[in-house]
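G., before I forget:
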Amino acid sequence: MVSLRSVALAVGDALRRAGIDAVLTGGACASFYSRGAYHSVDLDFVLAGEVTRSQLDAVMAGLGFRRHRDRYVHPVHPYFVEFPRGPLAIGDDVSIRPVLRSSGRRTMRLLSPTDSTRDRLAAFYHWNDRQSLQVAIQIALRNRVVMERIRRWSAREGAIDKFEEFRAMLKAARKRLR
Amino acid sequence: MTSTVVTVLSSPFGSETRTRVMLVLHLLEESYPRELARLLRVRLASVQGALRGLERDGLVAGRTLGRSRVFQINPRYFALAELRPYLSRLAEADTLLRDRADSLRRRPRLTGKPM
Protein backbone atom coordinates (compact mmCIF):
# COMPACT_ATOMS: atom_id res chain seq x y z
CA MET A 1 0.00 0.00 0.00
CA VAL A 2 1.43 3.34 -1.04
CA SER A 3 1.70 5.96 1.74
CA LEU A 4 0.79 9.63 1.75
CA ARG A 5 4.40 10.40 2.63
CA SER A 6 5.73 8.63 -0.47
CA VAL A 7 3.13 10.23 -2.76
CA ALA A 8 3.85 13.70 -1.32
CA LEU A 9 7.58 13.20 -1.83
CA ALA A 10 7.11 11.89 -5.37
CA VAL A 11 4.88 14.82 -6.38
CA GLY A 12 6.91 17.47 -4.54
CA ASP A 13 10.15 16.16 -6.02
CA ALA A 14 8.77 15.96 -9.57
CA LEU A 15 7.44 19.53 -9.37
CA ARG A 16 10.76 20.78 -8.00
CA ARG A 17 12.73 19.04 -10.76
CA ALA A 18 10.40 20.62 -13.34
CA GLY A 19 11.25 24.05 -11.91
CA ILE A 20 7.81 24.50 -10.38
CA ASP A 21 7.84 26.19 -6.99
CA ALA A 22 5.26 24.27 -4.96
CA VAL A 23 4.80 23.92 -1.19
CA LEU A 24 2.84 21.13 0.51
CA THR A 25 0.32 22.60 2.96
CA GLY A 26 -2.92 21.74 4.72
CA GLY A 27 -4.03 18.32 5.92
CA ALA A 28 -1.36 16.34 4.02
CA CYS A 29 1.37 18.44 5.61
CA ALA A 30 -0.25 17.92 9.03
CA SER A 31 -0.45 14.19 8.33
CA PHE A 32 3.26 14.19 7.43
CA TYR A 33 4.27 15.79 10.74
CA SER A 34 1.78 13.95 12.94
CA ARG A 35 3.21 10.69 11.59
CA GLY A 36 -0.07 8.98 10.98
CA ALA A 37 -2.01 10.39 13.95
CA TYR A 38 -4.04 12.27 11.35
CA HIS A 39 -4.83 10.80 7.96
CA SER A 40 -5.49 12.73 4.78
CA VAL A 41 -5.84 11.70 1.14
CA ASP A 42 -5.90 15.27 -0.12
CA LEU A 43 -2.52 16.77 -1.05
CA ASP A 44 -2.60 20.55 -1.40
CA PHE A 45 0.42 22.17 -3.05
CA VAL A 46 0.41 25.98 -3.11
CA LEU A 47 2.19 27.32 -6.19
CA ALA A 48 4.36 30.41 -6.47
CA GLY A 49 5.32 32.08 -9.73
CA GLU A 50 3.81 31.49 -13.13
CA VAL A 51 2.86 27.93 -13.97
CA THR A 52 0.71 26.84 -16.87
CA ARG A 53 -1.95 24.16 -16.68
CA SER A 54 -0.14 22.17 -19.38
CA GLN A 55 3.11 22.21 -17.35
CA LEU A 56 1.25 20.82 -14.35
CA ASP A 57 -0.57 18.26 -16.50
CA ALA A 58 2.74 17.04 -17.91
CA VAL A 59 4.44 16.65 -14.51
CA MET A 60 1.43 14.95 -12.96
CA ALA A 61 0.93 12.64 -15.96
CA GLY A 62 4.53 11.51 -15.51
CA LEU A 63 3.51 10.22 -12.07
CA GLY A 64 0.35 8.53 -13.37
CA PHE A 65 -2.12 11.22 -12.30
CA ARG A 66 -4.85 12.46 -14.61
CA ARG A 67 -6.72 15.71 -14.22
CA HIS A 68 -10.39 15.76 -13.33
CA ARG A 69 -11.44 19.44 -13.33
CA ASP A 70 -9.04 21.10 -10.85
CA ARG A 71 -7.99 17.87 -9.18
CA TYR A 72 -5.39 15.26 -10.11
CA VAL A 73 -6.47 11.71 -9.36
CA HIS A 74 -4.60 8.45 -9.59
CA PRO A 75 -6.02 5.22 -11.03
CA VAL A 76 -4.42 3.01 -8.37
CA HIS A 77 -4.18 4.79 -5.01
CA PRO A 78 -6.75 7.05 -3.28
CA TYR A 79 -4.54 10.13 -2.90
CA PHE A 80 -5.42 13.17 -4.99
CA VAL A 81 -3.55 16.41 -5.59
CA GLU A 82 -4.88 19.95 -5.80
CA PHE A 83 -3.18 23.29 -6.35
CA PRO A 84 -5.14 25.85 -4.31
CA ARG A 85 -4.57 29.48 -5.28
CA GLY A 86 -1.99 31.34 -3.24
CA PRO A 87 -0.45 33.26 -1.80
CA LEU A 88 1.13 30.95 0.72
CA ALA A 89 -0.23 32.46 3.93
CA ILE A 90 -1.39 31.54 7.40
CA GLY A 91 -3.98 34.03 8.47
CA ASP A 92 -2.55 37.45 7.69
CA ASP A 93 1.03 36.17 7.75
CA VAL A 94 2.50 35.91 4.24
CA SER A 95 6.14 35.68 5.35
CA ILE A 96 6.12 31.90 5.32
CA ARG A 97 9.45 30.12 4.97
CA PRO A 98 8.93 26.58 3.69
CA VAL A 99 11.39 23.83 4.62
CA LEU A 100 12.87 20.96 2.62
CA ARG A 101 12.38 17.32 3.51
CA SER A 102 14.18 14.49 1.74
CA SER A 103 13.95 10.75 1.60
CA GLY A 104 16.30 8.79 -0.61
CA ARG A 105 16.81 10.90 -3.71
CA ARG A 106 13.55 12.74 -3.37
CA THR A 107 13.13 16.20 -1.90
CA MET A 108 10.02 18.31 -1.44
CA ARG A 109 9.11 21.70 -0.01
CA LEU A 110 6.52 21.94 2.73
CA LEU A 111 5.44 24.11 5.65
CA SER A 112 7.66 23.95 8.72
CA PRO A 113 6.26 22.09 11.77
CA THR A 114 5.57 25.49 13.41
CA ASP A 115 3.66 26.72 10.36
CA SER A 116 1.79 23.44 9.97
CA THR A 117 0.73 23.76 13.62
CA ARG A 118 -0.43 27.34 12.96
CA ASP A 119 -2.26 26.18 9.83
CA ARG A 120 -4.26 23.65 11.88
CA LEU A 121 -4.81 26.10 14.73
CA ALA A 122 -6.26 28.62 12.25
CA ALA A 123 -9.13 26.17 11.60
CA PHE A 124 -9.64 25.80 15.35
CA TYR A 125 -9.56 29.56 15.89
CA HIS A 126 -11.89 30.52 13.05
CA TRP A 127 -14.26 27.55 12.81
CA ASN A 128 -13.88 26.06 16.25
CA ASP A 129 -12.78 22.84 14.54
CA ARG A 130 -11.59 20.76 17.47
CA GLN A 131 -10.26 18.00 15.25
CA SER A 132 -7.74 20.54 13.96
CA LEU A 133 -6.82 21.41 17.55
CA GLN A 134 -6.06 17.73 18.19
CA VAL A 135 -3.93 17.53 15.04
CA ALA A 136 -2.03 20.69 16.05
CA ILE A 137 -1.27 19.03 19.39
CA GLN A 138 -0.04 15.88 17.63
CA ILE A 139 2.28 17.93 15.37
CA ALA A 140 3.67 19.90 18.31
CA LEU A 141 4.15 16.69 20.31
CA ARG A 142 6.23 15.03 17.61
CA ASN A 143 8.21 18.00 16.24
CA ARG A 144 10.10 21.01 17.44
CA VAL A 145 7.83 24.04 17.16
CA VAL A 146 8.44 27.67 18.08
CA MET A 147 5.72 28.33 20.66
CA GLU A 148 6.50 32.03 20.97
CA ARG A 149 5.95 32.53 17.24
CA ILE A 150 2.62 30.67 17.49
CA ARG A 151 1.63 32.75 20.54
CA ARG A 152 2.40 36.08 18.86
CA TRP A 153 0.50 35.09 15.71
CA SER A 154 -2.44 33.82 17.79
CA ALA A 155 -2.63 37.21 19.51
CA ARG A 156 -2.75 38.94 16.11
CA GLU A 157 -5.56 36.57 15.07
CA GLY A 158 -7.48 37.59 18.21
CA ALA A 159 -7.33 34.05 19.57
CA ILE A 160 -5.09 34.22 22.60
CA ASP A 161 -7.65 32.35 24.77
CA LYS A 162 -7.76 29.49 22.28
CA PHE A 163 -3.96 29.49 22.10
CA GLU A 164 -3.86 29.07 25.90
CA GLU A 165 -6.25 26.12 25.57
CA PHE A 166 -3.92 24.60 22.96
CA ARG A 167 -0.88 25.19 25.19
CA ALA A 168 -2.57 23.61 28.23
CA MET A 169 -3.69 20.56 26.26
CA LEU A 170 -0.22 20.15 24.74
CA LYS A 171 1.32 20.30 28.21
CA ALA A 172 -1.09 17.62 29.46
CA ALA A 173 -0.36 15.42 26.44
CA ARG A 174 3.39 15.73 27.05
CA LYS A 175 2.89 14.75 30.68
CA ARG A 176 0.95 11.64 29.65
CA LEU A 177 3.79 10.60 27.32
CA ARG A 178 6.44 10.73 30.09
CA MET B 1 -38.60 34.92 -9.95
CA THR B 2 -35.52 36.29 -11.64
CA SER B 3 -35.10 39.28 -13.90
CA THR B 4 -32.23 41.02 -15.60
CA VAL B 5 -30.85 43.83 -13.49
CA VAL B 6 -29.00 46.66 -15.16
CA THR B 7 -25.53 46.93 -13.67
CA VAL B 8 -25.18 50.26 -11.92
CA LEU B 9 -22.21 49.51 -9.70
CA SER B 10 -18.68 48.36 -10.45
CA SER B 11 -17.78 44.68 -10.09
CA PRO B 12 -14.35 44.59 -8.48
CA PHE B 13 -14.64 40.89 -7.67
CA GLY B 14 -14.97 39.86 -11.29
CA SER B 15 -18.70 39.90 -11.97
CA GLU B 16 -21.74 41.55 -10.49
CA THR B 17 -22.92 38.30 -8.91
CA ARG B 18 -19.51 37.54 -7.40
CA THR B 19 -19.24 41.07 -6.03
CA ARG B 20 -22.74 41.08 -4.56
CA VAL B 21 -22.27 37.60 -3.06
CA MET B 22 -19.22 39.02 -1.28
CA LEU B 23 -21.25 41.99 -0.06
CA VAL B 24 -24.12 39.87 1.25
CA LEU B 25 -21.75 37.49 3.04
CA HIS B 26 -20.04 40.50 4.57
CA LEU B 27 -23.36 41.97 5.73
CA LEU B 28 -24.96 38.74 6.97
CA GLU B 29 -21.77 37.01 8.23
CA GLU B 30 -22.94 33.77 6.61
CA SER B 31 -25.53 32.55 4.15
CA TYR B 32 -26.46 29.64 1.89
CA PRO B 33 -26.94 29.53 -1.89
CA ARG B 34 -30.76 29.69 -1.94
CA GLU B 35 -30.87 32.65 0.42
CA LEU B 36 -28.20 34.42 -1.65
CA ALA B 37 -30.12 33.76 -4.88
CA ARG B 38 -33.31 35.12 -3.29
CA LEU B 39 -31.60 38.25 -2.02
CA LEU B 40 -29.70 38.94 -5.23
CA ARG B 41 -32.70 37.99 -7.44
CA VAL B 42 -30.52 35.79 -9.64
CA ARG B 43 -30.65 32.12 -10.59
CA LEU B 44 -29.41 29.59 -8.05
CA ALA B 45 -26.92 28.23 -10.61
CA SER B 46 -25.37 31.70 -10.99
CA VAL B 47 -24.86 31.97 -7.24
CA GLN B 48 -23.43 28.46 -7.07
CA GLY B 49 -21.01 29.28 -9.88
CA ALA B 50 -19.96 32.53 -8.20
CA LEU B 51 -19.43 30.74 -4.89
CA ARG B 52 -17.30 28.05 -6.53
CA GLY B 53 -15.04 30.69 -8.08
CA LEU B 54 -14.80 32.74 -4.89
CA GLU B 55 -14.01 29.58 -2.93
CA ARG B 56 -11.22 28.70 -5.38
CA ASP B 57 -9.82 32.21 -4.96
CA GLY B 58 -9.79 31.73 -1.20
CA LEU B 59 -12.15 34.67 -0.63
CA VAL B 60 -15.05 32.56 0.62
CA ALA B 61 -15.16 29.43 2.77
CA GLY B 62 -17.99 26.92 2.84
CA ARG B 63 -18.86 24.25 5.38
CA THR B 64 -21.55 21.61 5.51
CA LEU B 65 -24.30 22.13 8.08
CA GLY B 66 -26.84 19.32 7.98
CA ARG B 67 -27.71 19.10 4.30
CA SER B 68 -26.77 22.68 3.45
CA ARG B 69 -23.54 24.34 2.45
CA VAL B 70 -23.14 27.50 4.48
CA PHE B 71 -20.72 30.14 3.23
CA GLN B 72 -18.86 33.03 4.84
CA ILE B 73 -16.05 35.41 3.94
CA ASN B 74 -12.97 33.26 4.49
CA PRO B 75 -11.73 34.22 7.97
CA ARG B 76 -8.32 32.80 6.95
CA TYR B 77 -7.95 35.02 3.88
CA PHE B 78 -4.52 36.64 4.15
CA ALA B 79 -5.79 40.18 3.44
CA LEU B 80 -8.95 39.94 5.53
CA ALA B 81 -8.05 43.01 7.59
CA GLU B 82 -8.00 45.09 4.39
CA LEU B 83 -10.90 43.28 2.73
CA ARG B 84 -13.48 43.91 5.47
CA PRO B 85 -13.35 47.75 5.38
CA TYR B 86 -13.34 47.63 1.57
CA LEU B 87 -16.51 45.51 1.57
CA SER B 88 -18.10 47.87 4.12
CA ARG B 89 -17.37 50.78 1.79
CA LEU B 90 -18.81 48.96 -1.23
CA ALA B 91 -21.89 47.95 0.79
CA GLU B 92 -22.51 51.59 1.70
CA ALA B 93 -22.83 52.35 -2.00
CA ASP B 94 -25.20 49.46 -2.76
CA THR B 95 -28.22 50.76 -0.87
CA LEU B 96 -30.67 48.43 -2.62
CA LEU B 97 -28.75 45.34 -1.56
CA ARG B 98 -28.28 46.69 1.95
CA ASP B 99 -32.01 47.31 2.27
CA ARG B 100 -32.76 43.76 1.16
CA ALA B 101 -30.25 42.33 3.63
CA ASP B 102 -31.68 44.56 6.38
CA SER B 103 -35.21 43.29 5.72
CA LEU B 104 -34.21 39.66 6.23
CA ARG B 105 -35.46 38.10 9.45
CA ARG B 106 -32.68 36.01 11.01
CA ARG B 107 -33.39 36.11 14.72
CA PRO B 108 -34.62 32.89 16.37
CA ARG B 109 -38.30 32.02 16.46
CA LEU B 110 -39.86 29.49 18.80
CA THR B 111 -40.66 26.23 16.99
CA GLY B 112 -44.36 26.08 16.00
CA LYS B 113 -45.02 29.75 16.68
CA PRO B 114 -47.13 31.19 13.81
CA MET B 115 -45.47 33.78 11.54
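Chain A touches chain B at residues 70, 84-85, 87, 89-94, 122-123, 126-127 (CB under 8 Å). Residues 114-177 of chain A form one domain.

More on Monday.
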